């Protein structure tokens, strides 16, 4: 049996989450998928999937083989395209990870453009605020906001995320207005639980760096939820530009501590360090780089300063 067909069946089944999904994508019957994967298991001398009546779970060996299998298939498809004297086209399933709130605001237009350009690719989008393990979850490329820890991932800088300290006029009414970061200890603050340390906020001013200890009634791990908690007058929050801009323009939100700034966070595309990046991931990364300016909108205070000029 053709080992390329076996590898393709394995990759499609793993990406689709079932033998039936892999069979449907390849246009063959489920027994043919099972036979091809059984051939690979015999060839490699190891089980690739744990099967029950309801679930199909890749084994640790399957995860180790998966990246190499994709490289082999991409190389084979490129070689075939070169013989056919046609430019290679991305194919298969592109699994990407994006931060939930950022992804809702910015990613779907980019993904729609990509799908229109490359209809042979199926895009599997994973929305999460977690820094997931790309290799274990079969994610080829992810977007991450914040300073990156040391890892084997390759990172490509796309831009920065501006942040604002804000609250509603209703919350601020009748309370002493903070003048310095230390004054925040007397206020309710909405804590983003994925920031480390979560209960310390750092500010910069002409006098240097200031770190304030904060506390509050609610901890959340999603920027949209943090915005909603702020709009419900539950306290002061640090919101990213896309969550703060509309409220600041309309007056529903006010800047707190305007003489202090909060450091912007870097935005990166990250992907596993491999000898061969798939054509679908490479083409998507190229599109991200081309559209990067849309991910870093002009901060709301800059727009306000330039209005009416």
Automatic annotation (TrEMBL):
Q: Which GO terms describe its molecular function?
A: DNA binding
What is this protein's function? NodD regulates the expression of the nodABCFE genes which encode other nodulation proteins. NodD is also a negative regulator of its own expression. Binds flavonoids as inducers.
- Keywords in alphabetical order: DNA-binding, Transcription, Transcription regulation
Q: Which Gene3D superfamilies match?
A: 3.40.190.290, Winged helix-like DNA-binding domain superfamily/Winged helix DNA-binding domain
Family as reported in the entry's similarity comment: Belongs to the LysR transcriptional regulatory family.
InterPro entries xrefs: LysR-type_TF_proteobact-type (IPR058163), LysR_HTH_N (IPR000847), LysR_subst-bd (IPR005119), WH-like_DNA-bd_sf (IPR036388), WH_DNA-bd_sf (IPR036390)
What positions does the domain HTH lysR-type occupy?
Answer: 1-59
Protein name, entry field? DNA-binding transcriptional LysR family regulator
What the entry lists under Pfam families is as follows:
HTH_1, LysR_substrate
């Amino acid at each position: 049996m053709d080992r390329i067909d076996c590898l393709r069946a394995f990759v499609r089944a793993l990406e689709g989450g079932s033998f039936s999904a892999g069979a449907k994508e390849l246009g063959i019957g489920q027994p043919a998928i099972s036979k091809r994967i059984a051939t690979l298991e015999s060839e490699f001398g190891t089980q690739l999937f744990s099967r029950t009546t309801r679930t199909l779970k890749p084994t640790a060996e399957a995860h180790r083989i998966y990246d190499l299998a994709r490289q082999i298939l991409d190389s084979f498809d490129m070689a075939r395209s070169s013989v056919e004297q046609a430019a290679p086209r991305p194919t298969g399933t592109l699994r990407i990870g994006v931060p939930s709130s950022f992804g809702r605001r910015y990613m779907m237009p980019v993904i729609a453009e990509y799908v229109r350009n490359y209809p042979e690719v199926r895009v599997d989008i994973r929305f999460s605020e977690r820094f997931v393990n790309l290799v274990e979850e079969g994610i080829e490329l992810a977007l991450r906001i914040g300073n990156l820890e040391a890892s084997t991932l390759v990172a490509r800088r796309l831009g920065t995320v501006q942040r604002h300290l804000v609250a509603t006029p209703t919350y601020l009414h009748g309370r002493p207005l903070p003048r310095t970061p230390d004054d925040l200890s007397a206020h309710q603050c909405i804590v983003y639980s994925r920031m480390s340390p979560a209960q310390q906020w750092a500010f910069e001013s002409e006098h240097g760096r200031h770190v304030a200890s904060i506390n509050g009634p609610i901890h959340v791990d999603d920027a949209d939820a943090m915005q909603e908690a702020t709009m419900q007058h539950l306290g002061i929050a640090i919101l990213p530009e896309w969550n703060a801009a509309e409220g600041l323009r309309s007056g529903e939100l006010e800047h707190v501590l305007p003489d202090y700034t909060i450091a912007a966070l870097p935005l990166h595309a990250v992907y596993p360090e491999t000898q061969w990046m798939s054509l679908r991931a490479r083409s998507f990364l190229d599109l991200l780089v081309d559209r990067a300016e849309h991910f870093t909108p002009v901060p709301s205070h800059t727009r306000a300063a330039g209005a009416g000029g």
